[in-house]
Amino acid sequence: MIKKITLLALLTTYVFSAQNDYSKEQLEKMIAKMVVLGFKGESIDKKSKIYQDIKKYDLGGVILFDKDPNNKKKIKNVKNPKQLQNLTKQLQSINKTKLFIAIDQEGGIVQRLNSKNGFMSIPKAKDVSTKGLSFAKDIYKDLGKMLNTNGVNVNFAPVVDLNINPNNTVIVKLGRSFGKDPRKVIEYSSVFIDELKKQNVVSVLKHFPGHGSSLGDSHKGFVDISNTWDAKELEPYKYFIKNNQADMIMTAHVFNKFLDPKYPATLSKNINTKLLRNKLKFKGVLVTDDLQMRAISKHYSLKQTVTLAINSGVDMLLFANQLAKPLSLEEIINTIYLQVQNKQISIKRIEVANKRINALVNKY
């Protein structure tokens, strides 16, 4: 009996010490490494909040936008090439660790760098897919060079969703997909990924497990794809994972009761771990779509969101500060830190996410 009590005490001590191997400062930095944050500012200095966030916490990434969503006549981050190059240099020079500087640069309606602010304009995926692979290679080669020249090292693209539902307003009607045939989507997305990789720019496949069959827009609210989703929407992911071309994948805020009866994909362990990690064998970085979209923020608190997302297998949490009241990095870190202390999020999950993120940083 004494031996059993002693053994139990030793195990308890071991578990406790394992949870406390990191100082508060170390753990906060590990959490911050998992965050991609939006901010306001065409330039920064030591007084800027984003400068302090990167300096103090070693923030994982930022996302840049051209317009301020509250006043589209105002600039949020991108004014012109010279200004952007200065901004990305400022951001990258704060710490020795490489910062992910991300942007949505698909082409067509979704491109933060365009002819209006002095950059090359990229055609939408639908148009590129009608002009042949040679044209695609040329256009995405130019895109890769443009991103590299301007200090952007992560592109939240290509869209590998399939044009399944002709009434889909967020993907299909906007021409954001290369087509309804998985083979065609794979062909053109491969060119996109290859050309960006040549310029040391990380491509992000989106939106897992597929948004092309949806009727709704997850920016605006809850989206149920249970009766419209097709398993062939996984084909691009299967191909790119198998061929080591999937460095980063973005989750979708879509609900499919047949894949998870309770949670949307972003918060679903069934989808993000059991399907994507275990079945499809994805070993790269999994990033959320913007967690301030109404499909998530309308139904879950910040504490619920980050806890479910991290426990589901997500590595990086995107808070674009674009669609809602801005969230501070401290609020995000403190929420996750307390959930770790309360054993609602395991240290192991934080460690694994950091390992994947660091491996991707080192790869590029």
CATH topology, what is it called? TIM Barrel
Q: Which percent bin holds the helix content?
A: 40-55%
In spatial order, strands of the major sheet run 13-11-9-8-5-2-1-14
Tell me what the CATH architecture is. Alpha-Beta Barrel
Cα-atom radius of gyration: 21 Å
Distance between the termini: 55 Å
E-strand count: 14
CATH class: Alpha Beta
Question: What can you see in these coordinates?
Answer:
This protein is α/β, with parallel strands linked by helices and 364 residues long. It has one domain: TIM Barrel, CATH 3.20.20. The chain is built from 13 helices and 14 strands. The protein has helices at 2-19, 24-32, 49-57, 81-92, 125-128, 133-149, 182-198, 235-242, 269-279, 294-297, 302-312, 329-341, 347-363; strands spanning 35-38, 61-64, 67-68, 71-75, 100-103, 105-107, 110-111, 154-155, 202-208, 223-224, 248-251, 254-255, 285-287, 317-319. An 8-stranded parallel sheet has the order 13-11-9-8-5-2-1-14. Strand 3 and strand 4 (71-75) form a beta hairpin. The longest helix has 18 residues, at 2-19. The radius of gyration is 21 Å and the shape is globular. The chain starts with a helix and ends with a helix. The model is unreliable at 1-18 (pLDDT under 50). Its EC number is 3.2.1.52. It is an enzyme of class 3 (hydrolase). GO terms for molecular function: beta-N-acetylhexosaminidase activity. Residues 29-358 form the Glycoside hydrolase family 3 N-terminal domain. InterPro entries: GH (IPR017853), Glyco_hydro_3_N (IPR001764), Glyco_hydro_3_N_sf (IPR036962), NagZ_Beta-hexosaminidase (IPR050226).
